[in-house]
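Sequence design from tokenized structure. All designs in this work follow the same two-part layout: the structure record, then the generated sequence. An example of the structure record is given first.
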């Protein structure tokens, strides 16, 4: 998942002293706590949930041996979480100097020197290796390769591109959208590459891809001065950035309305009208806020759209799983 993070100065700017810096009245937390923080637990949790939804939606229509379901399900969750945590830690290691320049990231473990860069890098590599290995052994080669692709795109493409081009935002949607496919291929009865030919998994991939764009552009709007300070080429910091960002959010919100209905089309029968109603209502909310942003172009409106996107995604994911489970229960 995309996240604003990590130039030339590894010290925190004056006036931006973060909590936990020696000399600012806060105790230094332990190295273990700092390493956990470096994995971006909230993002790791969201990525893991989306993988779990992919697993549930693929596995809901097949017959399981209880022990196989438990082993595969736990391995999918743990493997995805470890892979995401590793990628996030490597990302923080790569962007530590830029993080120190930005108000919203200068309190992270590396800018505040609560843990050494080497420890974060080693932890990231080990976590990523453990996650991919666990998926390969217990879930299959395809889920493992998808997790490896998440790490590679996040670390080798998205992170280096962020100071170069606003297209990095689009690239960054890929590692945020692949986890549902990890879960789907881990649970699908088709197995292997055949699982990648099933439309259900790809409908979740498209939904996650499109949802990230208005969500992240709203964040970039709210914190554009901070992104500029860190040297990031997000759309709002470019010439005519506000107009371009508002138009882009409006377009992506229209596409999101279509993408929310994709799982119903791809998995009709597993999900149905209840999910469609929730998807439609959430899309109307996002479209209304997007058109308000186009008209008003204020930080307050961008913030409202950002929080609406935070409400929308879990509502959609919960509706998918609940609708599917209910239909299985009443058959």
């Amino acid at each position: 998942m995309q996240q604003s993070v990590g130039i030339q100065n590894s010290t925190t700017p004056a006036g931006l002293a973060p909590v936990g810096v020696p000399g600012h009245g806060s105790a230094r937390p332990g190295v273990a706590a700092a390493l956990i923080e470096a994995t971006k637990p909230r993002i790791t949790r969201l990525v893991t949930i989306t993988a779990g939804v992919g697993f549930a939606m693929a596995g809901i229509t097949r017959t399981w041996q209880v022990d196989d379901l438990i082993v595969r399900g736990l391995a999918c969750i743990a493997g995805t979480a470890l892979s995401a945590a590793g990628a996030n830690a490597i990302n923080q290691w790569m962007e530590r100097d830029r993080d120190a320049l930005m108000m919203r990231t200068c309190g992270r473990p590396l800018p505040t020197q609560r843990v050494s860069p080497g420890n974060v890098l080693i932890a990231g590599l080990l976590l990523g290796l453990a996650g991919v290995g666990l998926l390969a052994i217990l879930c299959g080669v395809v889920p493992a390769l998808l997790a490896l692709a998440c790490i590679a795109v996040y670390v080798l493409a998205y992170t280096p591109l962020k100071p170069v081009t606003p297209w990095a935002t689009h690239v960054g949607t890929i590692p945020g959208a692949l986890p549902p496919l990890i879960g789907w291929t881990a649970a699908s009865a088709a197995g292997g590459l055949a699982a990648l030919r099933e439309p259900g998994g790809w409908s979740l991939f498209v939904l996650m891809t499109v949802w990230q764009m208005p969500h992240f552009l709203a964040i970039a709007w709210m914190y554009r001065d901070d992104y500029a300070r860190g040297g990031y080429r997000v759309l709002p910091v470019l010439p005519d950035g506000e107009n371009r960002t508002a138009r882009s959010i409006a377009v992506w919100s229209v596409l999101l309305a279509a993408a929310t209905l994709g799982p119903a089309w791809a998995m009709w029968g597993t999900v149905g009208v209840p999910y469609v109603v929730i998807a439609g209502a959430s899309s109307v909310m996002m479209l209304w806020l997007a058109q308000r942003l186009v008209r008003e172009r204020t930080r307050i409106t961008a913030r409202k759209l950002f929080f609406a996107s935070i409400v929308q995604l879990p509502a959609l994911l919960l509706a998918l799983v609940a609708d599917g489970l209910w239909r299985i229960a009443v058959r």
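Confidence is low (pLDDT under 50) at residues 4-27. We note this feature because it recurs in several other targets discussed in the main text.
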